[in-house]
Here is the input.
Amino acid sequence: MAATDVAVTGLGLVTPGGVGLAPSWAAVRTGRATATLDPVLADNPVKISCRVPDFDAEALLGARRALRLDRFVQFALVAAHEALTDAGLDPKTWDGARVGVVLGCGDGGPATVEAQHEVLRTQGPRRISPLLLPMQLPNMLAGQVAIEYGAKGPNLVVSTACASGASAIGLARDLLLLDRCDIVLTGGSEAMVTPLVMAGFAQMGALSARNDDPGSASRPFDADRDGFVAGEGAGILVLERPRDATARGARIRGRIVGYGATADAHHVTSPHPQGAGIEAAVTAALRDAGATPGAVQHVNAHGTSTPLNDAAEAAMIKRALPADPLVTSVKGVTGHLLGAAGAVEAALTVLTVEQGLVPPTANLTTLDPALDIKVATTATALPIDLALSNSCGFGGHNAVLAMAPA
Here is the structure.
């Protein structure tokens, strides 16, 4: 293992595929699309989303506590518990000063803000909840996880739009390599599927308008794609230095061997049309990993199902990765989890590499002929030595994680 490697020793997921690692991975590897009509969006022009099914916050966190937390924090706490259990770590025994929490989030708690704005409008300012700010501030994502587990090291929330989760993981890796921490809980969480936020996305023309056929609406790289389907969820990874994980007898599920982050500096919402920014991030991640572009066998693409993003990313893959790697986008199943997407997809890439199984891109029936890349349409067995997980966000943010097996 190289000095720049970090070990992934625990994974936790809350996704539209289900609450937990097993149901989430089962949905992704079988290509089971999750988009449905959303009653919360009944008055919106776009009425579909990918919700986390059967998420009972009161049962999982306790009734009193659940009422004091926005949904994006609830997701993170549940995923963090699973990740720590998976890693075999007991927070009661660790040195909390050496444990960091670095999480990504695009927006914090808009559901809380929208609900409290309605209280302000109808009942006046004296009826606003004193919990408004503690519930909706983005930094509370990492703050609440740290409080839960006594993690007293660096405590950060990264916001790079839809690259937030991947950006957080890259920063967490750097903290380990700089010896600022021994353990970092990292990843991202998002719960932005609200009437106001979705109306904004719809007015931009970013969302799929397939209200009459939700299940097939998210179709990355398909010739008939028309926008993304918004989702919600969380992904948490436990990162350690390999020597520390080995010393405590931990199972190493995979390694993060490189990270690259760039900005397009091009447009507030549209990607660079040739994918120049994401290509620079891929180059940086491979340089960091000490790997050549020809070594990449698999790409977990950002693959949002929007015409511009898919075209730019496919052009970059064709140009920059000469081995014609097998590409997938899990957003056909999960929809776009926004600030949590990069974290959930990083965790799924770890599983892909660990199991040697590339999940299909759900709803891809006719590959856009302008996209000359190799996209998995069925679950495909593939021994993988090097994979990339790509993330991009509004504002031109790009983050790429290079993954290798344990």
